[in-house]
Fold this sequence. Notes:
Blueprint: H1 3-12, H2 19-37, H3 41-46, E1 48-57, E2 78-82, H4 84-94, E3 107-119, E4 125-138, E5 142-157, E6 160-170
Parallel strand pairs: 1-6
Antiparallel strand pairs: 1-2, 3-4, 4-5, 5-6
Amino acid sequence: MSKNEAISETINTPAMPSLELISALEQTLYKESRFLDSESYDKWVEMLADDVHYYMPGIQTRYRRDKTDQVHDLTRMAYYNDGLADLKKRLARLETGTAWSEDPATRYTHLITNIEVELTDNPNEHKVYSNYLAYRNRNERDQDTLLGNREDIWRATSNGFQLVKRLIILKQNILLSKNLNVYL
Length: 184
């Protein structure tokens, strides 16, 4: 490789996050999963920014020639299209004793993998891609496995990282679960 090619390649390569930043964000995602698995929702909510947008669109099977944007069109059907107040309201429902789908409690396991961190124009916010598998079991025989991809924005604060935006892409186009009392 010539000197000019090396310089050109360096210029066109986006800035890479440090290994320390990658590790810190990986640990943040693992901690978030632990909080969700143990139903420590009060701790999970502390990880959410005041301006959080938690979004999981419904995706239809389409032919490749159909270029309709089903992911970013906020006017389409979504399983979640929530801010902090909406998420808190959903969680408060679990405390009422009337959430039939959570009595007895559901058992959860979240697996997070393929974590990739990108820097953004804002030095305090970082784009994080990941894949998830969420397994849940309820009663004796009810079980669901949800899997897909996530695109997050995490903001560095004095109290650690806070989730600002989460786009959840569920790979099942038909949700066969009896309910959706799971956070991905």
